[in-house]
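Incident log, support desk, overnight shift.

02:14 A customer reports that sequence design results differ from what the structure should imply. Their input is reproduced verbatim below. On-call engineer (initials T.W.) acknowledged and began investigating.
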């Protein structure tokens, strides 16, 4: 049942990514985000993140959040919250 739900979620995410008018980097970030919804996919998410070079401020903000989430899930030490702060400032700016 769990695999079935994950397959449905992944299919919906991939459909949304395919239809979204975003760049390739953003699409890869959405894939990473969907991997983090499942349990024990942190290694796969991390391997994709290692190959991503954010191109825009939006990509950078999204990347920073996902990288922090992966590090947290893998029990990695987080020494600085500068990247998270960047993302918070970026998304706060969009609200105004």
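02:41 Re-run completed on a clean worker. Output:
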């Amino acid at each position: 049942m769990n695999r079935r739900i994950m397959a449905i979620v992944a299919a919906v995410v991939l459909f949304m990514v395919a239809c979204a008018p975003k760049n390739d980097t953003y699409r890869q970030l959405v894939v990473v985000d969907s991997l983090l919804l499942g349990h024990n996919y942190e290694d796969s998410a991390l391997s994709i993140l290692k190959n991503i070079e954010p191109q825009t401020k939006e990509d950078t903000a999204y990347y920073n959040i996902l990288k922090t989430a992966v590090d947290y899930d893998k029990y990695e030490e987080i020494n600085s919250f500068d990247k998270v702060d960047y993302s918070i400032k970026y998304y706060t700016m969009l609200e105004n």
